[in-house]
Amino acid sequence: MINLSVLLIIPLITALVVLLCSNPIQVRATALTGAIIQLTYSSLILYDFISQRAIGNTAQMLYESHHSWFSSLNIEYYVGVDGISIAMIMLTAVVVLTGILISWNVTKLTKEFFFLILLLSVGAYGFFISLDLFAMFFFLEVAVIPKFLLIGIWGSGKKEYSAMKLALMLMGGSALVLIGLLCLYFNTDTGGGTHTFNLISIAHMHIPIEAQQFIFPLMFVGFGVFTAIFPFHTWAPDGHSSAPTAASMFLAGISMKLGGYGCLRAATYLMPEAAHIYSPWIIGLSTIAIIYGAFATLMQTDLKYINAYSSVSHCGFVLFGIGMLTKTALTGAVMQMVSHGLMTALFFAAIGMIYERTHTRQIAQLGGLLKTIPFIITVFVLAGLCSLGLPGLSGFVAEMTIFMGAWQNPDNFYRIATVLACASIVVTAVYILRAVGSSVMGPIKNEAYRNFGDATWNEKLASITLIICIMAIGIAPFWLNNLVSPDTQLIMENIARSVGK
Amino acid sequence: MGTDFLLIMKSEVSLTLIVFFLLFLKIWDGVKSNITLLNIVNIILFFNLLFGLFFNTEGMLFNGMFYTNNTLFLEKSILNLGTFIISLQAFDWLKDHKHLLEFYILLLCTLLGMDFMISSDNFLMFYLGLELSTIPLAALCNYDLQKVRSSESAVKMILSSAFASCILLFGISFLYGTTGTLDFKEMAPLLTANKLQLFAFILTFTGFAFKLSAVPFHLWTADVYEGAPTSVTAYLSVISKSSIVFIFITVLFRLFHNYDATWHNMLYLTILLTIIIGNLFAIRQDNIKRFLAFSSITQVGYILLGISSGTAIGASAAIFFLIVYTFSNLGAFGVVSLVSEKTGKENISDYKGFYTNNKFASWVMAICLFSLAGIPPTAGFFGKMFLVTAGAAQEHYLLISIAVMNMVVSLFYYLRVIKAIFIDENEKPIAKLTGSASLRIALVICITGAITMGFASGLFEYINTLTGK
Asked: Which residues have CB under 8 Å from B382's CB, separation 6+?
């Protein structure tokens, strides 16, 4: 029998054990063991979920469990998962595991580093399994502050500035979400003047349309800040580039997905009419993010900034898919979340490995690395190719699904936006090929580069895990599609039902 | 009467007994070692705290001047708990002090005054308790006898609280004049739209705002907090403030419920000013005690936000928040008192690189500040959430939005301290400080409280059943 709370308990226990460890080797071993157990358990859930669905269990949420938390305010600890959450949980488990492998050699305050990473992952898991808006908000905020410390203590460059900017902007986003949540709470009625935070029951209620029109933008923009919605994307480049490798992986791989998931689950699902009304705005903003992100990347000379700005562009696709409000586009948005999470984690991991050896991330100073560290560079090139949407890798599948879904929307405005978003892929190809080309090929720029050792076992293991996942999605997209689409279908039905009325 | 009398007044009786015991101890002069004395006092305070939790008997005394119920027992226990923690933290400071017992006698007198004040059902009893709790506090502010700032703080404290008391008395006299009674229960139905009564209400409200250091009546706070000894500052900002909040809730809900529309509007404005101005000033502070003073002003704004709902949930949220606030603020003050006692440093910039040598104290500070900022998983998150949720029931979404956005502003200055402690480099960071065992116990109590209180959903539900009655 699957119990979802185990997903929170495993990393929590691991984190506590990490605190008790006395030397870095124990710390790493504990963290790695915890992450492996967590991945195993998540896979078990995935397997069980698929078999449940196969034998015809069509309940909307599986493995539900309720516990009263603050009954006077109708707040409960209510968890349950559907296909979308399971995809996110798998993503988190993979990224955390690889993040821990990549940061094997953190020597400064090792114990605190792994503790914070594990704490972050608790926040992410909790967010993805919660079906109570209060609990969801709780976990969302749990996943913010450790990032401040991770970037501030272990970061590089202008880390104080970036850490502060990231923490304040994300907390600003969650403040908007909180206002929205409270308004939503007081607009629900469970009979007898009591209100509820229960996501499923709110979805079956009819929230007055005036209230929706007020709440939806708050929630969408609030969660959108996490996904670097334009114009609130400015934390992302600074935050990503200053963060230590594992934190960048986590930040871009999971944290930005918290926002996308929130936009989908809390905003769009609960307020379908408002989603319909605001859909042109979402499309407008996300198209700007996609194009602006792509062009801004062209100007960057630092590898991490390149990936950070391209993340803004790629996460724009997530919101673009959500805003299109067609089933295929929503499915594509979820696939893009998973795909971008894996791809960007791989990219940051590769950049981290390069930086650890060369101590620079400036493209101009790199060159000819393929001759000295072939494994790392292969990983780097693969991540780049996935980012520019090469068929056979996950990026292509996800973006393709979004475009197909977007085209189903017959309105001219949406069509133009789709064409523009499609065109941005060309720009993506330019910056990725340029960055990869000049840092990988050509003569060796610096004699010191000749003495580098190639990837160590932990780096290899991390990269291979991520590459396998990316290729699995790229070559056999149907399993992810089948996992996710019944639930996006449900969200779409909810929208169609309320808008049709 | 008889035993009932003792049980109804048990908190007050036990405090009085302790005060007399300490007085005899002083006169007898048999215990020479300060450390023994401190341990004795701490043990007594611990038992006082325990005693406060049992044998609760509801009832009223003196023709209804004094009443007590389970809510009040809980509130008194919160004050006892805070005093106990502060006493543990004061160990390092007091162990070489000449006037140790006088400190505790004065401190417990103020606590006694607060107990009487929150239990009062009559303006006479209320005023008596209020003055008993203020005047010894001014003496306590001056407890670092050789420091000029300490005297300055005491003078400011006594003048401003005398002024506040004057305004309060002025209001009370009008209320007495128009209704002919001082009893809360009798007075409440007699309050009408009479202009003089409204004026009296405004004066009373102002008096309370002064004591709560709500903006625009906050100007005394920072100077007093900065000059007073750290333990006294902690006492002022936690215990004294909590007691005023408790009686303020009683006065608004029990006495002035006819004026709820008026006090909603007055609170609206006060909350806005308190939160915004408290935040703006807190950003600029470099002295950590002044910083905590202004941050506590902002916290008062949030407490008032809960109260402004006028509902039982609002009252429970305020009481729950004060429990959390007691743990978190005292934890922060514990670290501040450790540092200022051992090194004399009180500036935020002195804390740069603090984490290098003082890991435990740094984490205490971080957890407590996160709790004050309302960051999960600390208890402060739940406290703030309940206050904001309760406040939102009034559907003043502009106010709620401003309050919530100000939580982000406040996060900025809390993070500034965290940044100094954890991130900033310093060539000569503060060396390893070892506090006494009792200080460490106090810090452990504080962080345990600041982490677990939010998950202890039973506590909030318990408070809720009490206030719901």
From this structure: A70, B320, B324, B376, B453, B454, B460
Please, are residues A282 and A220 in contact by the beta-carbon 8 Å criterion? yes
For residues A455 and B336, the model is more confident at: B336
A284–chain B Cβ distance below 8 A for any pair: no
The secondary element (H helix, E strand) that includes residue A75 is strand A75-81
pLDDT in the model for residue B2: 59
Nearest by CB to residue A142, choosing from B376, B389, B461, is B376
Burial B10-27 (b: 16+ CB within 10 A, else e): bbbebbeebbeebeebbe
Q: pLDDT class for A501, splitting at 50, 70, 90? A: low
Question: Which residues from chain B sit within 8 angstroms of residue A71, using beta carbons?
Answer: 457, 461
Taking the Cβ of residue A304 and every Cβ of chain B, the question of whether any pair is shorter than 8 Å is answered with: no
Element (H, E) at B143: none
Domain of residue B270, residue span:
3-468
User: Could you tell me where the DSSP H helices lie in B68-218?
Assistant: 70-89, 91-94, 100-119, 123-141, 148-179, 184-187, 195-212
Q: Do A70 and B412 touch (CB under 8 A)?
A: no
User: What is the C-alpha to C-alpha distance for residues A142 and A176, in angstroms, rounded to an integer?
Assistant: 16
Give contacts of A157 with chain B, Cβ < 8 Å: none
β partners of residue B59: B68
Which residues in A lie closer than 8 A to residue B393 (C-beta atoms)? 186
Asked if A148's CB is within 8 angstroms of B418's CB, the reply is yes
Q: A211 at the B interface (CB within 8 A)?
A: no
Task: Locate all alpha helices (DSSP H) within B311-456, ordered by sequence.
Answer: 312-343, 354-357, 359-373, 379-392, 397-418, 437-452
Q: Residue A450: pLDDT above 80?
A: no
Residue B245: per-residue pLDDT: 93
Instruction: Give me the mean pLDDT over the A334-343 stretch.
Output: 91
Would you state the structure tokens that stand for residue B278, as one six-digit string?
């408290």
Q: What is the pLDDT of residue B443?
A: 92
| Predicted pLDDT at B215 | 81
Q: Helices B70-89 and B100-119 meet at what angle, rounded to 10?
A: 160
User: Which portions of chain B are predicted below pLDDT 50?
Assistant: none
Cβ–Cβ < 8 Å for A30, A21:
yes
Identify all chain A residues contacting B460, using CB atoms and an 8 Å cutoff.
70, 72
A72 and B385 in contact by Cβ < 8 A?
A: no
Model confidence pLDDT, tens digit, residues A252-285: 888 889 999 999 888 888 888 888 889 999 999 9
Name the residue of chain B whose CA is nearest to A197's CA.
B389
Q: Which residues of B touch A175 (CB under 8 A)?
A: 404-405, 407-408
Question: Nearest residue on chain B to A184, judged by CA atoms?
Answer: B392
Please state which of the ranges A248-262, A380-394, A487-501, B414-428 shows the lowest mean pLDDT: A487-501
* pLDDT number for residue B469: 67
Distances (CA, A) of A257 to A136, A250, A471, B35: 14, 10, 20, 56
C-alpha distance from B192 to closest chain A C-alpha (Å): 30
Would you call A476 helix, strand, or coil by DSSP? coil
Average pLDDT score over residue span A82-105: 90
pLDDT tens figures, A48-57: 988 888 888 8
Question: Which residues does chain B have within 8 Å of residue A172's beta carbon, measured at their own beta carbons?
Answer: 405, 408
Chain B residues within 8 A of A183 when measuring between CB atoms: 392, 397
Pairwise CA distance, residues A319 & A421, whole Å: 12
Instruction: Please enumerate residues of B whose Cβ is less than 8 A from a Cβ of A.
Output: 313, 316, 370, 375-377, 381-382, 385-386, 388-389, 392-393, 395, 397, 400-401, 404-405, 407-408, 411-412, 415, 418-419, 422-424, 457, 460-461, 464
Q: Count up the domains in chain B and report the number.
A: 1
pTM equals 0.92
Here the ipTM equals 0.89
Could you tell me if A264 and A333 are in contact, meaning their C-beta atoms sit under 8 angstroms apart? Answer: yes
Q: What average pLDDT does range A320-325 have in this prediction? A: 89
